[in-house]
Design a protein that fits this description.
The protein is mainly α. The protein is built from 18 helices and no strands. α3 crosses α6 (142-150). The two termini are 16 Å apart.
């Protein structure tokens, strides 16, 4: 059940109304059970068998955290989510890699990749680890822990919600309120605009070019690369906005997952602004335990490479994702080596942003390409000034313009409010006013009128 579907709209209306009625006449425990059942229904809508895997991971996390001090139990809590993730997502990948090395086809298994498995296994891992580190208390309420791992807004494609952030909210008597709904529904609308109006239109152009890059002019290929950079940002940040908005409507708060990543002046800053929940997870549960930057420069660079290579593999069972992670790791190491200038003038800042965007866009080639041959064809087409089909895709220029407008709005708002750094911008209006309601319904009309009608799943559904 995709967020961008009539089915989800009906489902969400039922959940909102059901939660509102339950909170007025029944206990908080009943509301938790209702939201848990709704979340499992949402997940089972793709394939009911996925629910048993999610339940298995939940039971494992519950008991291993509860009996963490018994010998060997804590290890089980780490191993189970990793084995589940490794088998369903990477078994055929490693089997195929071994086949290539030994020159003998070992065959593959017909394994269906459960949606959202990368996200809820990471949440299960962080919960067990945080309990063992005594950063949070063991959750003795199974329903509450199950709801944390399966809560439908973030279940399929994040953001990766930390137990320390969400479990305390479940213990509170959070309610569906009009104020929360008015704020959350605008986040949902903004996310849908990013997804079905901008990202999905861009995907048509990007898919055409990446499918047969040898057929297109080098300038068209370059435009497609830039378009994919914008597409994946609008697609994934759009999903995150919808997830955050859905949770807000129900009374719960998620941390922001994106913060204008394309204004970053270096790759280090980019990874502080892009997919924040994943980058912070990798930092806390992988990079720092490996030693972080505490054991000298060489060890720091090695730790960065291990973290980013595994981060690339997390995104997909393909060597192109690993290579993508390696490119980012190399850039992070170079950034650590370069001297830092305390204050840059405006020209230097703009130049730094453009260079960073160009590099990140280059790495996205390997993220998007089906294989290395496809990626090489794209790169070769640009650098050999390939001739072919010229296609100045209109939606690319519309998306670029809107991204600039959103960014300028964020800069103006941040300076006006004297923020320490530029923060993400959301065009939230006051729905208590006629003007606010007018703007909101005009935006809804634009979403409906301009929406891409073909079915395009969210990019991160495959992870």
């Amino acid at each position: 059940m995709s967020f961008a579907s009539i089915d989800f709209i009906i489902f969400f209306i039922i959940v909102i109304l059901g939660t509102y009625i339950i909170q007025k006449f029944f206990s908080k425990r009943v509301k938790e059970v209702f939201l848990l059942l709704a979340s499992y229904f949402f997940y089972g809508y793709w394939d009911w068998r996925f629910c048993f895997l999610l339940l298995f991971v939940t039971i494992s996390s519950y008991f291993t955290a509860k009996y963490k001090d018994k010998k060997g139990v804590y290890v089980i809590g780490i191993v189970v989510p990793l084995v589940v993730l490794g088998f369903f997502k990477y078994f055929n990948f490693f089997l195929g890699s071994i086949s290539g090395i030994i020159g003998h086809d070992l065959g593959v298994l017909n394994i269906i990749l459960p949606v959202g498995i990368s996200f809820y296994t990471f949440q299960a891992l962080s919960y067990v680890i945080d309990v063992k580190r005594e950063k949070i208390e063991t959750e003795n309420n199974f329903i509450r822990l199950a709801l944390y791992l399966s809560f439908f807004p973030q279940l399929v494609a994040g953001p990766i919600v930390r137990a320390a952030d969400f479990l305390p909210q479940l213990k509170e008597d959070r309610k569906v309120t009009l104020d929360n709904f008015k704020y959350g529904i605008q986040l949902i609308a903004f996310g849908l605009f990013k997804k079905i109006v901008l990202a999905d239109h861009l995907s048509v152009f990007v898919d055409d070019v990446f499918r047969v890059p040898v057929a297109f002019h080098w300038a068209t290929i370059l435009l497609a690369i830039v378009s994919y950079s914008i597409q994946i940002y609008f697609d994934f940040s759009g999903y995150s906005d919808i997830a955050i908005g859905c949770a807000k409507c129900l009374g719960y708060d998620f941390n922001s997952n994106f913060n204008l990543p394309y204004i970053s002046q270096n790759v280090t800053e980019f990874w502080r602004r892009w997919h924040i929940s994943l980058s912070t997870w990798l930092k806390e549960y992988l990079y720092i335990p490996l030693g972080g930057n505490r054991k000298g420069k060489v060890r720091q660079y090695i730790n960065l490479f291990i973290t980013m290579l595994l981060g690339g593999l997390w995104h997909g069972a393909s060597w192109t994702f690993v290579f993508w992670g390696g490119l980012n790791a190399l850039a992070l190491c170079i950034d650590k080596m370069l001297p830092k200038k305390k204050e840059k003038n405006i020209l230097e800042k703009v130049l730094s942003v453009l260079i960073t965007f160009a590099f990140i866009s280059f790495t996205w080639i390997f993220f998007r390409a089906d294989n290395f041959s496809n990626a090489w064809a794209v790169i070769k087409g640009i650098f050999t000034f390939q001739v072919g089909i010229k296609q100045p895709f209109v939606w690319s220029f519309v998306a670029i313009m809107l991204l600039l407008i959103f960014t300028i709005g964020a800069v103006v708002k941040s300076h006006k409010n004297k923020y320490r750094q530029i923060e993400g911008y959301y065009p939230i209006v006051n729905l208590d006013t006629v003007l606010g309601l007018t703007i909101f319904f005009v935006v809804l009309g634009l979403i409906i009128g301009l929406a891409f009608t073909g079915e395009q799943p969210f990019v991160y559904f495959q992870f």
